[in-house]
Amino acid sequence: MKKLTxxxxxxxxxxxVLYSVVEYTNGAxxxxxxxxxxxxxxxxxxxxxxxxxDEGIEIGEQAPNIPLQTLQGKKTNVDHYKGKPVILNIxxxxxxxxKEEMPGVQRFHEKYGEDVTVLAVNATSTEEDPSNVSRYxxxxxxTFETLLDKEDQLSEKYxxxxxxxxxxxxxxxxIHSRKFGPMTYEFMTDKMKKLD
Length: 196
Known about the structure:
Pfam families: AhpC-TSA. This protein has 196 residues and is of the alpha+beta class.
């Protein structure tokens, strides 16, 4: 009797999970991949690396020199941007908290872009259609540097547990601080003042 009850409960939970996945997928297809962004920047973000993965890059360590690609298809890397502070933001087009913070990132870039490089690194391997990245950036009119992490090398090396994830990097390439989850323009401005 106990085994039968356990089997029934387990079957119910599996069915519930499958139903939720189907409903979520159908909802995303019906909306054309667009999501209603709530305006709540207290959201935690969205997981893209398994929780059992290593810690990743720590504060004080040198930012790894990861090969990336520009939206125009040119190869670049993280070291290319050394010499002034960098705000490295990992994001995806399907991530509502990422979309929520983007206007603030743009505003920051417009005001402080001469002093601090903003790198918006797209977790491209998680995108349903990689061409969504360039369409989204163009549609929204964002002008900060957008790079593609097509091979997941940056996300894996940094062990990005959730996105958005942001690393504040000093001009010498060392990690000053980091933030998991969305950030505001004011948060970025405050962090910028502490970068070397």
